[in-house]
Amino acid sequence: MAGLMSRASMVVKAKFSKLLDHAENPAETLDYSYERQLELLQNVKRGIADVVTSKKRLELQETQLQQSVVKLETQAREALAAGREDLARQALERKSGLQQQLQGLDQQAQQLEQQQEKLVASEKALSAKVEAFRTQKETIKAQYSAAEAQVRIGEAATGIGEQMTDTGLAIQRAKDKTEQMQARASAIDELTTSGALEDFTSDQTQLDRELGALASKSQVDDELAKMKAEVGSGEKQKELQQ
Amino acid sequence: MIVRLMGEGQFDVDDEVAKGLNDLDEQAAQALEAGDEERLSELLRRMAEAVRMNGARMPDEHLDASDTIIPPDDLSLEEARRLFGDEGLIPDLPGA
């Protein structure tokens, strides 16, 4: 059984020999390969930007859920003050469910953040590699005339071929990982928007309505009491004036 | 001896380190064979660490081919199978 190192070396060598054997104009092939690397790297950069956007959306949803938690807490107090323990219990139950969801969301956001940091770091390293490849290919092109390169590039360019293959693999893996993260971020996004994680801020629940009615009733009661007091004191003043 | 850490770069290591790498490599191949992802990652990580700690990093502009190549230390089992299998993990190079 061959070791992994020799197998990896074989795979890499096979990859670029195939390329160089078929290349009619090695200099052109190197240029084209460089362009292609730049292009793929751009895709990785765009992918990372998408992930950042998804993460921001996730954070926004977290903030909204946090606001809902505060709101439910207030509602529970109001309900209790109004002697509606049943409603207070409902509000607190929802609050606890919401807090659990928040925790899960927070963990996911943190994981996304860590993976994103790694991706950004590897994207930077890749940019440096692609730039190094550009320098290498210019060296090769300067060393050999086109005709000479045709013959000699096989041996002289083994190093650059290896670098090219390796950079290709690294970019491919960064691309795969970025796509995985995009899929994951959008899955979380989907989950929250489809209501699997219920959005408590937008939909008016039965609880909301009852508490709303209660709140407006108590507001009416308050205002009524205030008015009564005012009217009462007015009457008293009248009495005093008389 | 020039060793390439795939996706990272080339390092110059001495024979002693190379010998240690061969031992780890043999175990890594067994781990892959056994489908033991955790063990494979651990071994690949140890190999990469040995190279990073004891080797001299070659500049990216360096043009010589490596004597040997070590797969990425975060290679998953599925990626390893693709890398060494027919399907191939490395994208076809343009023009090939």
The parts of chain B where pLDDT drops under 50 for at least 5 residues are: none
Strand percentage of chain A: under 5%
What percent of the residues of chain B sit in helical stretches (DSSP H or I)?
Answer: 40-55%
Task: Classify the beta-strand content of chain B into a percent band.
Answer: 5-15%
Order of helices and strands of chain B: EEHHEEH
Classify the secondary structure makeup of chain A into a structural class: mainly alpha
Which structural class is indicated by helix and strand composition of chain B? alpha+beta
Mean pLDDT across the residues of chain B is 87
Strand order of the largest sheet of chain B: 3-2-1-4
Helix content of chain A: over 70%
* Count of DSSP strands of chain A: 0
Query: Runs of chain A with pLDDT <50, length 5+?
Result: none
What are the defining features of this structure?
heterodimer, A: 242 residues, mainly alpha, 90% helix, rod-shaped, B: 96 residues, alpha+beta, 4 strands, globular
Short description:
Chain A is mainly alpha-helical.
Chart the SSEs and their pairings.
The complex is a heterodimer of chains A (242) and B (96).
Chain A lengths: L3 H19 L3 H56 L3 H59 L2 H11 L1 H36 L12 H36 L1
Helix pairs in contact in A: 1-5, 2-3, 2-5, 3-5
Chain B lengths: L1 E4 L3 E4 L2 H20 L2 H18 L1 E2 L10 E3 L6 H8 L12
Parallel strand pairs in B: 1-4
Antiparallel strand pairs in B: 1-2, 2-3
Report on this model:
The complex is a heterodimer of chains A (242) and B (96). Chain A has 242 residues and is an all-alpha fold. In chain A, 90% of the residues lie in helices and 0% in strands. Chain A has helices at 4-22, 26-81, 85-143, 146-156, 158-193, 206-241. In chain A, helix 3 runs antiparallel to helix 5 (158-193). Chain A starts with a helix and ends with a helix. Chain B is of the alpha+beta class. A 4-stranded mixed beta sheet of chain B has the order 3-2-1-4, with helices on one face. Chain B starts with a strand and ends in a 12-residue tail after the last helix.
